[in-house]
């Protein structure tokens, strides 16, 4: 009887675990296979060997990975021990994604959350940007969360190369890497030098990454980022509005006016531009033009709770000023 | 600019959840870039954002999770309102990246055995 149990038990364990793994592996298809065919721009291998490495202490892969990308972005004093104080959550024995984003802002850098796909990762690597990724090294049901920095790929050898934990050059098969990354919803961030934009960046995603820096009055970093965005996407009004808003907050109202004018040329039917323009004009005592701009904002969005009242708002403010 | 902008909802957000410590007084006049961007991302969870964000409560929560009170404020101030809300709502479930060598090793061995 006991003998029989002994024989059976391992099989049962394996069968159960197998079932768990099978459900895990039967999930979404992997993306990397389609990315390396013969016309692919990503065929050749790349490894960002200069990327610094911080062997992590217990549970500190978040601070170590973040220090790695921050240093690459020019924050030369980024230090895992200091960062641990900013992102380590003792009761969870790890770091949460939003804390990594916050700590990046505290270093005056833009934390760009990549589009969640494998091609974006390749685009960044080929533009010399290492990518901080979240991985699930366990199973969907029993996750083991881990941060690492992808520094290279070798399609020929089917390898992904990472700075990970205590391993300076960890090599994973593409398949294994993508599974672990896929289970973390392909979450990854890119941190570039000030005034540089990630290669894979999409305008709205990028503006979403920059606006919080402006909101937190990290004006220098934000304005360099918006400045770069006006060059990368010359048809987008948002970075010009951002520059205008920074100028406004710094009470450089004439500069703000100029940026809003430029934005209005790109977005002639967008009420917020004219609304902010009205304020910038008012602050310079140009009451007549402020009134016109407010009127225009109101005509563009008559039912809007804020812009629909633009003329009254600006008139009241003008009377207060007088 | 995208033409499919929806006016009317996004611009309330700013007034709900701003932290006075980091917002300059003059900024109350104009539409913030943050609001503009939030509005352009139609997928934002509006119901969630209508909840009043109490940063003091969030601070308390972080302190309970082992962060010192001053540092907790710094952390919260470096996050967006959406991030803070997500953090408070799911602090126990969110992935906490760490290094669990033993667990990984164990899983790896099992994986080798059964594959």
Automatic annotation (TrEMBL), chain A:
<dbReference type="InterPro" id="IPR011990">
    <property type="entry name" value="TPR-like_helical_dom_sf"/>
</dbReference>
<dbReference type="InterPro" id="IPR019734">
    <property type="entry name" value="TPR_rpt"/>
</dbReference>
<feature type="repeat" description="TPR">
    <location>
        <begin position="271"/>
        <end position="304"/>
    </location>
</feature>
<dbReference type="InterPro" id="IPR039563">
    <property type="entry name" value="Peptidase_C39_single_dom"/>
</dbReference>
<keyword id="KW-0802">TPR repeat</keyword>
<protein>
    <submittedName>
        <fullName>Tetratricopeptide repeat protein</fullName>
    </submittedName>
</protein>
<dbReference type="Pfam" id="PF14559">
    <property type="entry name" value="TPR_19"/>
</dbReference>
UniProtKB/TrEMBL annotation, chain B:
<feature type="signal peptide">
    <location>
        <begin position="1"/>
        <end position="28"/>
    </location>
</feature>
<keyword id="KW-0732">Signal</keyword>
<keyword id="KW-0812">Transmembrane</keyword>
<dbReference type="Pfam" id="PF20332">
    <property type="entry name" value="DUF6627"/>
</dbReference>
<keyword id="KW-1133">Transmembrane helix</keyword>
<protein>
    <recommendedName>
        <fullName>PA2779 family protein</fullName>
    </recommendedName>
</protein>
<dbReference type="InterPro" id="IPR046735">
    <property type="entry name" value="PA2779-like"/>
</dbReference>
<feature type="transmembrane region" description="Helical">
    <location>
        <begin position="94"/>
        <end position="114"/>
    </location>
</feature>
<keyword id="KW-0472">Membrane</keyword>
């Amino acid at each position: 009887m006991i003998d029989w149990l002994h024989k059976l038990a391992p099989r049962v364990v394996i069968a159960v675990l197998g079932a768990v793994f099978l459900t895990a592996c039967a999930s979404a298809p992997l993306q990397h296979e389609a990315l390396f065919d013969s016309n692919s721009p990503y065929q050749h291998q790349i490894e960002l060997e200069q990327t610094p490495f911080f062997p992590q202490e217990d549970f500190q892969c978040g601070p170590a990975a973040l220090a790695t990308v921050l240093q690459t972005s020019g924050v030369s004093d980024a230090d895992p021990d200091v960062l641990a104080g900013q992102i380590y959550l003792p009761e969870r024995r790890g770091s949460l994604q939003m804390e990594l984003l916050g700590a990046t802002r505290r270093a005056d850098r833009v934390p760009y959350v990549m589009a969640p796909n494998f091609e974006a990762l390749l685009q960044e690597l080929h533009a010399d940007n290492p990518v901080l990724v979240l991985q699930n090294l366990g199973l969907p049901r029993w996750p083991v969360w881990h941060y690492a920095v992808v520094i290279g790929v070798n399609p020929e050898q089917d390898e992904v190369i990472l700075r990970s934990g205590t391993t300076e050059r960890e090599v994973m098969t593409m398949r294994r890497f993508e599974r672990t990354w896929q289970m973390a919803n392909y979450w990854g961030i890119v941190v570039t030098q000030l005034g540089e934009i990630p290669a894979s960046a999409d305008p709205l995603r990028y503006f979403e990454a920059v606006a919080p820096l402006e909101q937190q009055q990290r004006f220098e970093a934000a304005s360099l980022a918006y400045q770069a965005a006006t060059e990368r996407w010359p048809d987008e009004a948002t970075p010009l509005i951002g520059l205008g808003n920074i100028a406004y907050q710094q009470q450089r109202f004439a500069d703000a006016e100029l940026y809003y004018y430029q934005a209005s040329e790109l977005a002639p039917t967008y009420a917020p531009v004219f609304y902010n323009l009205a304020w910038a004009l008012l602050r310079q005592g140009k009451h007549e033009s402020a009134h016109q701009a407010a009127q225009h904002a109101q005509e563009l969005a008559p039912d809007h709770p804020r812009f629909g009242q633009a003329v009254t708002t600006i008139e009241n403010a003008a009377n207060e000023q007088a | 600019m995208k033409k499919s902008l929806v006016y009317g909802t996004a611009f309330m957000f700013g007034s709900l959840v701003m932290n006075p410590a980091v917002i300059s007084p003059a900024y109350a006049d104009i539409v913030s870039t943050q609001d503009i961007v939030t509005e352009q991302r139609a997928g934002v969870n509006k119901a969630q954002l209508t909840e009043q964000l109490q940063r003091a409560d969030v601070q308390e929560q972080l302190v309970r999770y082992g962060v010192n009170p001053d540092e907790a404020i710094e952390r919260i101030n470096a996050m967006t309102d959406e991030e803070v809300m997500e953090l408070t709502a799911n602090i126990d479930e969110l992935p906490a990246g760490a290094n669990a060598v033993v667990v990984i090793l164990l899983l790896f061995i099992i994986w080798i055995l059964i594959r």
